[in-house]
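Predict the 3D structure for this chain.
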Amino acid sequence: MENLKLFFRRAQKKPLRFFLTILQISLGVLAAALIFNMHFGLVNMTDEAAQSLGEEYFSVEIYEEQIHDEMGWRSIGEHRLSTEALNTLLESPDIVSITSLQSSFMMIIQIENMLYQALGSYEATSSFADTIPLEFISGSFYTKLEEKEPKAVVSEALALTLFGTTDVVGKTIGIAHHRDTPAKDYLITGVFREPPLAITSMLGKIHLVHTPFSINSNESFHSFFVRANPQRVSSAKASISNLVLEECGPKATADIRDSKTTFDQFRQIIDNILKVLGVLAFFAVAVSSIGILSIMMVNILERDKEIGIRRSLGATQSAVFFQILLESMLISFLGGLLGLLLATIVTHLFDPATFFELLDIDFSLTQTGLDLKAALLSLLLACVVGGLFGIYPAYQGAKLSPVEALKE
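Done. Predicted structure below.
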């Protein structure tokens, strides 16, 4: 307790120096806290998202080989399953429903005389609604009887973009594959909320789903989405692999991905990024703590008489050493608290989703504020680094000779 009183008494004598040192440390802790907060937020988000959707939902892509080049990952040697083969799967008790997905990255939407390019557009049959969970805020998905009619459902975000309202059921939109082809009018039957992250992580964004331009019973598919019996997921995956082997031959591979697989891969990528950022966080705290080293060395030079008197009155070298070390850690602790206060303010004002937008990653954290684990880890890091930088000044102060110190 006496050491604490001495510490704060010295701080009152040099308030500006004391404040600037604490502020320097707080900036390093701020950087570390934000990085750790992002890490724990991502871990929590991926865990919650993976658990929000059972393993019975998964995507299937059939290919011969995957290569990676300047264009990213690409499947080559494409193989396909016929409509008849998919119907065979549906007869199995392992499978609840299957939907084939025909996505278009160049889908053109026409509203009056305005043209829009819609991302996240799919043409699908009514089985889409049975396979992929969508929550509708108005209307509903088109039925099997309506598959041959021009019907569509849109996301809440797309409805607001095109019409400025979500009250669009009964309105029509023009849809075309290309700018050069005439648009065909589709009746909007429903507006759905953004699908859960577990779904969009496998399929990408879903903003528009419409009935197929044409229905061909002889059509074949190299990718589709499956909803399996929750009690027979492993059996369902085995059935699909066996069917692909039987229909497409031994060279074909059925790439089966559920949300857990997707998030595990995503977390590996993010963990690698955050490891680098974690090293930067350590150096941020370390660089900011260099001020402790310089300030404590100056303090020792200013306090040599005090140290000499204490030593002459019986204080041991270890007592002086731990007193100076305690002061270093206290400065780090107070700087850490100020840094956490700044981090709390920043996390309430700054949306981490902006960071992912810069990386072209469409993820938003449900967590708001500063994570407790991130705060404690940042504070611990500050105290440890501050203690390390306080060892040398403490050693120099402890080895001062009482006689030499009093002469000074």
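The longest strand covers residues 184-192.
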